[in-house]
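queue> holo job accepted (magnesium ion)
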Amino acid sequence: MSSRTRKFLSYYKPYTRLFLADMACAFIVSAATLIFPLCVRFVTKNILEGGAGGSGYAPDALDQIYFMGAVMLGLLVIHTLCNAFVDYQGHMMGALMESDMRRELFEHYQKLSFGFYDEQKTGQLMTRITNDSFALSELYHHGPEDVAISLLNFIGAFFILVSINVDLTLIVLVFLPIMAAYAFYFNRKMKQAMRTSSDRIGDINAQVEDTLAGIRVVKSFTNEEIEEEKFAYENNRFVDSRRDNYRTEMYFYEGLLTFTQLMTIAVVIFGGVSIVSGSLDLPDLLTFLLYIGILIEPIKRFGNFTRLYQEGITGFDRFMDVLEVQPDIQDSPGAVDLANVEGNVTFRNVSFKYKEGYGYVLKNISLDIKAGEYVALVGSSGVGKTTLCSLIPRFYEVNQGEILLDGQDIRDIRLRSLRKNIGIVQQDVYLFAGNVIDNIRYGKPGASREEIIEAAKKANAHDFIMTLPDGYDTDIGQRGVKLSGGQKQRLSIARVFLKDPPVIIFDEATSALDNESEKAVRESLEKLTNNRTTLVIAHRLSTVRNAQRIVVLTDNGVREQGTHEELIAMEGAYANLYNTQLEI
Ligand code: ADP
Ligand code: MG
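queue> job finished
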């Protein structure tokens, strides 16, 4: 059994009892279906026909008829109850299993690294967690039950057919292998088509997600038509894949259906001939035809199961494709928790590239930042400043060299512990849909209202928050669209105040702000940097100038470092940068 199969079955485990009850009901339903025509046969053949023979009905014929009526009613009640159980509890079991898988996938998403998300489309990832897992829940629930009922009905009906009339059964036997081969062939074709169409649904979702996330850009460029074209492209590709899909499905279903009809016709003709020649009686032919109906039922059910199976298995494959991705960055076996971090950050000969085949972004960087020091990082755009900063919390792994926090290689520190000690404020702030207070609380889950207000005051955010319609409880819209850039930035700083880490990184946090908000943000930043190791990337000299040390990053690594005055005096790269900025 492959590991995926084992994984597939493992989701039944918590619901074993429910599953067994479900299967038991399915068996009973199947048995009831098989017994029903036997009752009809008993009434027509044993009770009624005996009388029609001329010898008069047996004295207890009526009693027998009433008795059989009662038996059939009883069967009906059992059949209905069991069917109801399968319908309701079976579906619930599927839904519970689906929710287990969804949770597992969601937790896995949280573990995957930046490198993974750089390559993935959000819409595809969302499709896996919604569409694909739904298809699976259907398979989980209906799959075994369909297989069990079809198999049981099929085998049962077959044996009953043999017992009624061997010759007629032989006719049926001629058809079965042909149908099996036919089903097998189209089944394989359906699998491919199903995978393509699942991928296409993911593409559509990815396209919609992309357009909606950028809807403001779309509108400002009045490029609605371009977006519609992109959407139409994905939409048409989906239709094409569905066309393939439905075509194979059509061959599959219609083929099977035709074969079964041919089988019935053959039995009617042959049976008719046999009756005329006296080797068969009418009730037997009628019963035989009833059972052929029962035999055809599982064949149709099997057709249904095939589609369910293909959809579910495709979903499962897509699910496993992601679940089997190992996060590139994980805790090493002996990783430790850091207590009382002072905040010494050291880069030792660090080289880094984003991917194999890409050039190195950072080459042989060495840098030593003392606890509590305020260091500014400057350099032209694209030189790797952001990259350098994202190596400290281990968003990406260095290719060569090492980064130390308080002398400890960060690869030997547990990720949670490492990241708890680092606060990052970036240019594009991400706020979650919800209200102000919950967004600030994100810096320290469980923080009290007082703590939050305190942090907001330090971040110069309290005053503007109080002017919002509901103060701290104001809804700020998705990604904080109802706030200005400076306001969002101050909320993100309040978050970091609340988190209170010993190491802080500002990546162009004020670059996009107007002078007035920049001033408010800068004041709050300065409060935040007190007694903390601070690494600032900034264009504005106002932020850089009062740094204890300025580090100039170029394509060839750290070119020069020193205070503002020292670097100006050197008349090197920094002086150049400074002078060009003055001109602007
Ligand atoms: P800076 O912050 O100094 O402007 P960055 O560190 O953002 O520069 O980028 C440095 C280089 O790395 C750029 O050439 C950029 O194209 C590349 N880069 C940045 N992020 C990624 C990524 N996620 N995957 C691949 N390359 C990247
Ligand atoms: Mg940058």
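queue> Strands lie at 345-352, 362-369, 374-378, 400-405, 408-409, 422-426, 503-507, 533-537, 549-554, 557-562.
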